[in-house]
């Protein structure tokens, strides 16, 4: 019978946040439900990956003071990161409700025009419901070895005041569909808050990244680094160590490279044959 394989994409950064691009399979230790993976079947470094993006914008009352800068950040991202020849993006916004404003497209003018029309959707902040909706059914189907990266780019302060779903629901769904969450919050760097902790967890558990911008002057550097993280990744594949249905926890470590940080999703779902 066919033996299933798990595919894991990840990036590695040094202590200064710079991408590490010279790793080999011997540098890796991979654990599947605490069991060491004895054989990695495939290892490669992927560059200039096409992106399937979900751009998710917080338009609730809690971000009223930074709403204009969030829109500016979104405009900058669409203009400078999206490659219309290979990438696709959809636009969603959330507050008390969640709304899809633009289905997935590579049409940059359409995305920019839609962004201008996005309005506040109520005073509550249903962050987790917005993320859940973005993960579920909005990404186009992709097939083949060069399937695009699935990424949600979230612009929010990380607050949630009334979602029906919770953070565990969002993380589980993102891991199931291999979606990475990249998040940006705009505020002064005096100290982190609970919203930052939420956004950091969402990024860590799905293999994405979390960024804070103190002003719009930082957008260029942040989005340059974000794009590098999205488009340059390693890929490995392996057989599940135990063919048990359900969630499998993943842990990827680097041999003798303690100061390096791995960005990878922390689990996968296995459907038993």
Description:
- The protein is of the alpha/beta class and 273 residues long.
- Helix content is 25%, strand content 31%.
- It contains 6 helices and 14 strands.
- The strands form 3 sheets. A 6-stranded mixed sheet has the order 7-6-5-8-9-10, with helices on both faces.
- A hairpin with a 2-residue loop joins strand 2 and strand 3.
- The chain is globular, with a radius of gyration of 18 Å.
**Fraction of residues in H or I helices:** 25-40%
Beta-strand residue percentage: 25-35%
Q: How is the main sheet built?
A: 6 strands, mixed
Sequence of strands across the biggest β-sheet: 7-6-5-8-9-10
Rg measurement, Å: 18 Å
* Count of β-strands: 14
Encode the helix/strand succession as letters.
EEEEEHEEHHEHEHEHEEEE
Query: What number is the mean pLDDT?
Result: 89
Structural class: alpha/beta
Shape: globular
Total number of helices:
6
Alpha carbon gap, first and last residue: 9 Å
Low-confidence stretches: none
Give a concise summary.
With 273 residues, this protein is an alpha/beta fold.
Helix/strand layout:
Blueprint: E1 6-13, E2 28-32, E3 35-36, E4 42-46, E5 51-58, H1 67-80, E6 88-94, E7 98-105, H2 108-117, H3 127-135, E8 149-155, H4 167-176, E9 179-186, H5 194-206, E10 210-213, H6 219-231, E11 233-238, E12 246-254, E13 261-264, E14 267-270
Parallel strand pairs: 5-6, 5-8, 8-9, 9-10
Antiparallel strand pairs: 1-11, 1-13, 2-3, 2-12, 4-11, 6-7, 12-14
